[in-house]
Fold this sequence. Notes:
six-stranded mixed beta sheet, four-stranded antiparallel beta sheet
Amino acid sequence: MSRAALEAVDVGLTYPTRRGSTQALSQLNLRVGQGEFVALLGPSGCGKSTLLRLAAGLLAASEGSVQVAGRPIARPDRRTGVVFQKPNLLPWKTVRGNVLMPAHTLGLDAAEAARRADELLELVGLSAFANGYPQELSGGMQQRAGIARMLLPDPELLLMDEPFAALDALSREHLTLELQRIWGSQRKSVLFVTHSIAEAVFLADRVLVMSPRPGTIVQELRIDLPRPRSLDTFDNPAFVAATRQLREYFNENLVR
């Protein structure tokens, strides 16, 4: 078996609150292979975002281990790129300036970073807006700029925490197609947190389901749909069957 892009082994996380300790994760095991797109589903409060922050080095596990590309991760570094629900672009910087921000914080070569920024703006369809400002972009365009910024340091693993949750339905559908195209071009390893069963099945090679808190992986579904996927995929019997299987599992086991 090849080295995993991300591996969590027997991970637990307990954190203090004013009412005592709360166990967010328990005995969680997860593996994301090289170039694999894994979607993570689960009920609200189950620890999906917590797991993603562990993988990003933003939190430390109370138990077990988290490794990126075979090495423990204890703090944020350039091996991982993260996109949250909001892109948090700086309004006083141009779109290109926002994409270039990791070059300054990570000390990347300026000329190489500028070349890659231009390539990424082309990849996400924002070349014409490179010298514009975030407030001139739609929500979906801002999120694409955030994805380009994440890709600038060429990370090995992409961690995406419900990146389309704040968008309207049509923008979300369009960005789902765009993300598939970008992933197909870059072929990065991805852990994608979402509340949308359809979005998970459309994008992923595998869908993992988490239990209510304390969160652990309780279900895995491999998605055997041909790529690239299109809007017609939503009518594919295999797509319909996979979404139905996941929805039935949620209704029977995870809805309280």
